[in-house]
Amino acid sequence: MRYPVTPDGRYFVVRGRLWRCTDPALDAETRAVHTRELMSARRAKQAALRQENAAAREAARQRVDAAKRALGERGPVWWTDGAPDYNRHMARNTPYAAWLASLAAT
């Protein structure tokens, strides 16, 4: 399933919430390396949850965070125009509200 991406390409929307997109300036190989690490870390976190291993879960969470930061999905924003970060905000409470409403109207 493809989620709508804001016109500026900074966020995609899931159930009305904005999530920061990966930095488009990353080359394909770098992006692939970090995406593989992210998926591996998510699997490790899930395994730790099933095993009720708090230490392994925390280590996996840190790996997830590091991978997301490397992809530009967390941490400092990857755009340079000084626009604020609306990651994890409800779109209806941001400047993207009208854009999202226009999607629903079509």
Give the SSE layout:
Layout: E1 11-14, E2 17-20, H1 28-51, H2 54-71, H3 97-105
Antiparallel strand pairs: 1-2
Helix pairs in contact: 1-2
Outline the structure in words.
- This protein has 106 residues and is mostly helical.
- It folds into two domains: 1-21 and 80-106, no CATH class; 27-72.
- The protein is built from three helices and two strands; from the N terminus they run ββααα.
- It has helices spanning 28-51, 54-71, 97-105, and strands at 11-14, 17-20.
- A two-stranded antiparallel ribbon has the order 1-2.
- A hairpin with a 2-residue loop joins β1 (11-14) and β2 (17-20).
- α1 packs antiparallel against α2 (54-71).
- The longest helix has 24 residues, at 28-51.
- The two termini are 18 Å apart.
Sum this structure up briefly.
This protein is mainly alpha-helical and 106 residues long.
Shape: globular
- Element string (H = helix, E = strand): EEHHH
Calculate Rg over CA atoms. Answer: 16 Å
Query: How many β-strand runs?
Result: 2
Distance between the termini: 18 Å
Please give the largest β-sheet. 2 strands, antiparallel
Strand % is 5-15%
Report helical residue fraction: 40-55%
Alpha-beta classification: mainly alpha
Assembly annotation: single chain
Count of domains: 2
The parts where pLDDT drops under 50 for at least 5 residues are: none
* SS field, number of helical segments: 3
Mean pLDDT: 96
Across the major sheet, the strand order is: 1-2
